[in-house]
Amino acid sequence: MSENLLRVQPIRNGTVIDHIKSGRGRKILEVLNLSESGTTISLLMNVPSKKQNRKDIIKVEDRELSEDEIEKLALLSPKARINIIRNYAVAEKKKVEIPEIISGTVHCSNDNCISNNERSATTQFKLLDSENLRIQCIYCGRKIDEDEISFL
Ligand code: ZN
Q1: What residues pack around ion ligand 1 (CB closer than 5 A)?
Q2: How much distance in Å is there from the Cα of 118 to the middle of ligand 1?
């Protein structure tokens, strides 16, 4: 286990989300609604890091993240790393990655968009730029920047 993970009190089973963009941890807790999940959640903020100057870490006990949650996490902090912990050891490491098509996780800001008006329509966005996060609605063409993203 890396030095950084040791800062977090070990958990038996669950997920450690590491290398979260500093200051973004609270928003991730909120968007993923982790505090409602009924398991123990810890948030570490402004942890010194070699790769970034500072980072946040979230520890979620007894739970792994769903595909939708990982997609939201990627949009909130593309450099985050997911460590799945089983029996006190890192069983699996995952990089998060913003998919080319973001489906069913982001709300289109155009009120007239079909995705807001057809009950059966699933929102779909195309990834335009992953560095300076920018996505585009497939239905209406609305472009949305990182600050404007609102999650479903
Ligand atoms: Zn749209």
Answers
A1: 108, 110, 113, 137, 139-140, 142
A2: 11
Closest to 9 (Cα-Cα) out of 38, 40, 37, 30: 40
DSSP string over 62-123? T----HHHHHHHHHH-TT-EEEEEETTEEEEEEE----SEEESSEE-S-TTSHHHH-TTPPP
CA of 140 to the centre of ligand 1 (A): 4
Are the C-beta atoms of residues 47 and 83 closer than 8 Å to each other? Answer: no
In the chain, the largest separation of any two C-alpha atoms, in whole Å, equals 50
Instruction: Please give the chain's pLDDT, 152 residues, in tens.
Output: 455 555 557 899 999 999 999 999 999 999 999 888 889 999 999 999 887 689 999 999 999 999 999 999 999 999 999 999 999 999 999 999 999 999 999 999 999 999 999 988 999 999 999 889 999 999 999 999 999 999 98
